[in-house]
Amino acid sequence: MIGIVIPAHNEERYISQCLESVLLAVEHPSLKDQLVEILVVLDDCSDSTEAMVAAMGIQSIGVSFQNVGKTRAVGAEQLLKAGARWLAFTDADTVVPPDWLARQIEFDADAVCGTVEVDSWREYGEAVRTQYLALYQFIENHRHIHGANLGLSAEAYQNAGGFKHLMAHEDVQLVADLERIGARIVWTATNPVVTSARRDYKCRGGFGDYLASLMPPNTDIGVEPSMSSDSGLRGRDLVDLIDWVQWPAMVVTVISAWFIGSQQPRRRMIAFWGFILSNALWVIWGWHTNAFGLIALECILLGMNARGFRKNQHSSQASEYIAPTDS
Q1: Measured distance CA(203)–CA(220) in Å, rounded
Q2: Tens digits of per-residue pLDDT, 78-110?
Q3: What is the 8-class DSSP label of residue 191?
Q4: Strand stretches in the chain, DSSP E
Q5: End-to-end CA distance of the chain
Q6: pLDDT tens for each residue of 107-146
Q7: CA-CA distance, 292 to 103, in Å (whole number)?
């Protein structure tokens, strides 16, 4: 049996996407003859995480540690008692690829350490993204360790002593123990998971703190408060909405380009209004994606469109006063 452990502390914003991706990975054709059990360890959850997990038919247990190392250890212990021969670990704010679990098994190693990719840099900006990518190695035989992308045999886990009850870096300590006993570890970038770069991270000293450490000096990186489930249009929904702004912006731009070719002043006026609207939409989308070059371009075009609007307006008004010619 293969066991998957997912620790969770108030993860109602992310848990559904995580579990959907894990369930898809479990259905990989190469695992059709394998029994796979997924266990979510609910660590002192006070939101709707437990109900969401239950609604998806996933097994869970509740603890009150607020200690990720102990939470992972308890989940691993329960699956080992159930007969797991391989343990895979990820996080509740992470999405795994469809071949994630299959790739771990195919390596036939004692342990597999995978890489992580970030879903969005909007909360940290381009400076952190650039610094992160400069330091991170998306290559084989890297030496990155993430509890969000880790798998190992039950034998290796037990021989290494399992997860220590640490508040952070429990994954680093486990891999160090694996190296101490001479376990064969595969360091691969072929099965990356996608994790959140949120600022309301749950584990101090973990991945979120690492990203925060990459911020330029004198930058406010205070943790943003989590949004409650009844707050209407929540942060993630707003982000998805802004992502879609690019499509109406494109449509308005194309329609305006068609109208601007008309010889009728009224249609050209409509075109300039459309161009100005598209400028505003592109600026909103550019700000969201940190596309500052696009923002600068759109501001320049906005000025040119406003000038064209005024000139076309004067031309339209002048044409109304042209006296009719005699036939």
Answers
A1: 19
A2: 999 999 999 999 999 999 999 999 999 999 999
A3: S
A4: 2-8, 36-43, 59-63, 86-89, 94-95, 111-113, 116-118, 150-153, 185-187, 193-195
A5: 95
A6: 999 999 999 999 998 888 888 999 888 999 999 999 999 9
A7: 39
Q: Which pTM was predicted?
A: 0.66
What 8-state DSSP symbol labels residue 216? P
Helix-strand-coil split of the chain, %, nearest 5: 45, 15, 40
Asked if residue 111 lies in contact with residue 87, where contact means CB atoms within 8 angstroms, the answer is no
CA distance 326 to 163: 97
Q: 135 in helix, strand or coil?
A: helix
Q: Is 60 exceeded by the pLDDT of residue 240? A: no
Q: What's the CA gap between 280 and 74, in Å, rounded?
A: 52
Alpha helix ranges (H) inside 82-153? 100-106, 126-135
Q: Which residues contact 177 (CB under 8 A, 6 or more apart)?
A: 160, 161
The per-residue pLDDT for range 188-208, each reduced to its tens digit, is: 999 999 999 887 776 676 787
286: closest CA among 272, 300, 273? 300
Which tokens sit at 131? 């610094």
Alpha helices, DSSP H, located in 82-118: 100-106
Amino acid at 46: S
On whether the CB atoms of residues 42 and 263 are closer than 8 A, the answer is: no
